[in-house]
């Protein structure tokens, strides 16, 4: 038995009151945790889906010169000297940044100009699996390249060169086969031919070389600037271009959803605080006698404050644990119901639990500060002089 | 040991002020039993609360063991309440959700350190001294009025105070139980504890070495009781 005996006994004695308060607080925290987790996951999968409409970071070799092209019209390059990046090292470096969880896709590319049927055409070496992830708008007539020597032709390139599925195109010292033709995309892709990166590298004898890499980064929870900064630290000799407008637009959508959700949780928590404050005030009035006796026994005002605050603290801490655990379990279930489970990024995090419990405890103590202060300032005779 | 001089106290309730104590002086020596008698509303409880530090006077001085309490800090007052003086009331003011022994240990529940075995044994001992052996673990509802007052007395005794204030301790008890409580107070006084008791009953007042009569906020007589 010590100073905490009284608050514990009171919590136990007023089990219904304690239960109601814990329930409401738990509900508030649970909804914040639940909604936050779910919205984050939905945010992630939403962003992942948006990633399919293009990369948001481009990494290419540092050049001294300006690119002279605008709106797809190339006007040549003044000091034309092609630089390359090493493929493996670049890709590995990107995946090794601290925020690598946010790297969704890395799509390295090698560009090669060839002549076919006496006409010039650009061949783009890509890793098809990666490329498809950032170009969900691709739709192939015929088949996707099943083998390493398969190529896909852009719609205009196919028309211009009269390409058909099964046609053989020699590139460098290898022969490639047209496996399919892209439906028109309205992008530069229409004018090019896509080959497997590694096959192209071997064919034109540029092993492990790429011209640039497209990166799709997920920006929920971190600014794109951080990602760019971390990549540039790993790859000092590259130019990194973040497409700010794409990023900002994606982030705005996700943040609106999250703000809405946190606002709602906040309202529930505020209600819980208000209830705690009211219950505590009633409790202080009801226990005037006890406070008077304690003061008469030499308890200081601050001890009285501790006794009442501790009661709220326990309610807060208990709700924090229940709310976090409930929110964690609940979000898993909810995501399963929403069939977003496979994208779930929910992990039970002891630190978050600790932070939640601490934050809710502080919140509940603050909520009951007024009644506790009132109790602390009560004089012994307030309780029994008028009997 | 306790000397109050020229105590004044005015209450203001609903805009109406009334002077309840109009210059009261009372002295209590070490080991003395003082009874305070007087009609209802004469200011006995108010005086008692001021003597036991529960209420501050508007003017006058209170010397307790040579210390001027009206000048004391709240920390000093708390220390006096913790160590030197105890109060019991007509209403026993037990905590209904604590057992008899736990109620007795209340004065020691202000710290963060848990109460040790020695103190818990002490609580049982004090309870047996007031005649409650075997009832240590009962809740107050399972005790009679007289027994509840005994628990309150035990709670007052455990800190070994030098003075016990009792405001109409028999007020809620039948005469037989009341007599027993007075006997207990007498016994404790005989063992060296100073007692200040407010009572309606002239019979009970005779327990005191000194009987102070109050009337309309003033001391109207002091009678020394040889027996
Ligand atoms: N807290 C208070 N506020 C206002 N008036 C009070 C208060 N306490 C007591 N009184 C009044 O002071 C007078 C003396 O009360 P009290 O000291 O309790 O007398 P007694 O104990 O002798 O009956 C009574 O008229 C009572 O109504
Ligand atoms: Mg009275």
Outline the structure in words:
The complex is a heterodimer of chains A (387) and B (227). Chain A is α+β, with helices and mostly antiparallel strands. Chain A has two domains: 5-47 and 252-383, no CATH class; 56-242, no CATH class. Chain A has helices spanning 5-13, 15-51, 87-95, 128-134, 155-161, 197-203, 224-234, 244-286, 288-296, 301-337, 350-367, 369-377, 380-384; strands at residues 57-61, 69-70, 73-74, 85-86, 103-116, 119-126, 140-142, 150-153, 168-171, 174-182, 192-196, 209-210, 212-217, 238-242. In chain A, strands 1, 5, 6, 7, 8, 9, 10, 11, 13 and 14 form a ten-stranded mixed sheet that branches. In chain A, strands 2-3 form a two-stranded antiparallel sheet. In chain A, a hairpin with a 2-residue loop joins strand 2 and strand 3 (73-74). In chain A, helix 2 (15-51) runs antiparallel to helix 8 (244-286) and helix 10 (301-337) runs antiparallel to helix 12. Chain A starts with a helix and ends with a helix. By secondary structure, chain B is α/β, with parallel strands linked by helices. Chain B has one domain (29-52, 83-224): 3-Layer(aba) Sandwich (Rossmann fold). Chain B is built from seven helices and ten strands. In chain B, the strands form two sheets. Chain B has a six-stranded mixed sheet with strand order 6-7-8-3-9-10, sandwiched between helices. Chain B has a four-stranded antiparallel sheet with strand order 2-1-4-5, with helices on one face. In chain B, helix 4 (117-129) packs across helix 5 (145-157). The longest helix of chain B has 16 residues, at 175-190. In chain B, 45% of the residues are buried. The model of chain B has no long low-confidence stretch (mean pLDDT 93). Chains A and B meet through helix 1, helix 9 and helix 13 of A and helix 1 and helix 2 of B. Bound molecules: adenosine-5'-diphosphate and magnesium ion (MG). Residues 44-45 of chain B line the site of magnesium ion (MG).
């Amino acid at each position: 038995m010590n100073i905490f005996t009284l608050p514990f006994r009171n919590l136990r004695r007023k089990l219904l009151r304690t239960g109601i308060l814990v329930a409401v607080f738990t509900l508030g925290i649970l909804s914040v945790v639940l909604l936050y987790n779910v919205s984050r996951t939905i945010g992630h999968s939403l962003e992942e889906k948006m990633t399919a409409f293009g990369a948001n970071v481009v990494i290419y070799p540092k050049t001294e010169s300006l690119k002279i092209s605008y709106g797809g019209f190339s006007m040549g390059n003044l000091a034309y000297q092609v630089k390359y990046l090493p493929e493996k090292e670049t890709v590995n470096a990107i995946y090794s940044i601290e925020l690598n969880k946010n790297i969704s896709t890395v799509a390295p590319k090698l560009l090669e100009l060839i002549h076919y049927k006496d006409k010039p055409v650009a061949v783009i070496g890509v890793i098809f699996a990666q490329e498809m992830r950032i170009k969900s708008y691709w739709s192939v007539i015929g088949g996707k390249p099943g083998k390493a020597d398969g190529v896909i032709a852009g719609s205009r390139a196919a028309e211009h060169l009269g390409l058909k599925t099964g046609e053989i195109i020699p590139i460098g010292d290898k022969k490639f086969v047209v496996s399919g033709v892209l439906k028109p995309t309205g992008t530069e892709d229409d004018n090019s031919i896509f080959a497997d990166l590694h096959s192209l590298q071997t064919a034109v004898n540029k092993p492990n070389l790429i011209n640039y890499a497209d990166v799709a980064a997920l920006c929920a929870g971190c600014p794109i600037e951080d990602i760019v900064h971390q990549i540039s630290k790993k790859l000092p000799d590259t130019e990194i271009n973040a497409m700010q407008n794409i990023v900002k637009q994606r982030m705005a959508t996700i943040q609106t959803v999250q703000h809405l959700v946190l606002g709602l949780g906040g309202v529930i928590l505020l209600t819980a605080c208000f209830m705690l404050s009211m219950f505590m005030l009633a409790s202080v009035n009801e226990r005037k006698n006890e406070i008077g006796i304690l003061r008469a026994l030499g308890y200081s005002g601050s001890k009285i404050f501790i006794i009442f605050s501790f009661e709220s603290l326990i309610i807060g801490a208990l709700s924090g644990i229940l709310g976090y655990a409930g929110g964690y379990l609940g979000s898993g279930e909810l995501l399963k119901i929403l069939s977003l489970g496979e994208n779930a990024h929910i992990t039970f995090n002891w630190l978050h639990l600790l932070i939640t419990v601490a934050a809710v405890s502080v919140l509940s103590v603050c909520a009951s500060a007024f009644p506790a202060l009132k109790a602390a300032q009560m004089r012994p005779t307030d309780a029994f002089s008028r009997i | 040991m306790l000397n109050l001089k020229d105590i004044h106290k005015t209450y203001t309730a609903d805009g109406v002020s009334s002077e309840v104590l109009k210059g009261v002086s009372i002295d209590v020596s070490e080991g003395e039993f003082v009874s305070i008698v007087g009609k209802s509303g004469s200011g006995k409880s108010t005086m008692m609360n001021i003597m036991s530090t529960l209420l501050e006077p508007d003017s006058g001085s209170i010397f307790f063991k040579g210390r001027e309490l009206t000048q004391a800090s709240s920390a000093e007052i708390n220390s006096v309440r913790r160590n030197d003086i105890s109060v019991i009331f007509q209403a026993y003011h037990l905590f209904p959700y604590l057992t008899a022994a736990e109620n007795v240990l209340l004065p020691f529940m202000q710290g963060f350190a848990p109460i040790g075995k020695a103190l818990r044994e002490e609580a049982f001992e004090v309870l047996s001294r007031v005649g409650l052996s075997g009832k240590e673990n009962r809740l107050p509802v399972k005790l009679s009025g007289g027994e509840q007052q005994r628990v309150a007395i035990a709670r007052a005794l455990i800190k070994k105070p030098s003075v016990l204030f009792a405001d109409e301790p028999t007020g809620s008890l039948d005469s037989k139980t009341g007599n027993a409580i007075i006997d207990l107070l007498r016994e404790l006084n005989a063992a060296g504890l100073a007692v200040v008791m407010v009572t309606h009953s002239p019979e009970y007042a005779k327990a005191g070495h000194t009987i102070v009569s109050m009337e309309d906020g003033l001391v109207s007589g002091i009678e020394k009781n040889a027996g």
